[in-house]
Amino acid sequence: MMDDLVFFDTMRQGIWVAFIISLPILIAALVSGVSIGLVQALTSVQEMTLTFVPKLAAIGVVFWMSMNFMTNTLVAFFHSQIIPLIIGG
């Protein structure tokens, strides 16, 4: 039977891993959104697809570039935390 402290510690570590994994994509979306917004404000062009398409492209590129990091981080978390809890160690 799992202790409450072990459960909450595992949840805390899982949330931290999710945060670390999602950080590159969130930063890419933030940087591309702010830069496109700045260009729109400077040129007075208010086109909805002008913000969506570059942001989607930036997210796709950063996701493709950071897939190895994300996979390794998630697999390390599972091997070090989740699998020993399932086995009972």
UniProtKB/TrEMBL annotation:
Membrane topology qualifier: Multi-pass membrane protein
Chain segments annotated as coiled-coil in the UniProt record: none
Single GO biological process annotation from the record: protein secretion
Tagged with keyword Lipid metabolism: no
Keyword set, alphabetical order: Cell membrane, Cell projection, Cilium, Flagellum, Membrane, Transmembrane, Transmembrane helix
Location of the protein in the cell: Cell membrane
InterPro entries assigned to the protein according to its UniProt record, in alphabetical order: Bac_export_3
This protein's record includes keyword Transmembrane: yes
Domain of life of the organism encoding this protein: Bacteria
Main location: membrane
Membrane-spanning segments: 15-36, 56-78
Cellular component GO terms, alphabetical: plasma membrane
Recorded family membership: Belongs to the FliQ/MopD/SpaQ family.
PANTHER family: FLAGELLAR BIOSYNTHETIC PROTEIN FLIQ (PTHR34040:SF2)
Protein's name in the database: Flagellar biosynthesis protein FliQ
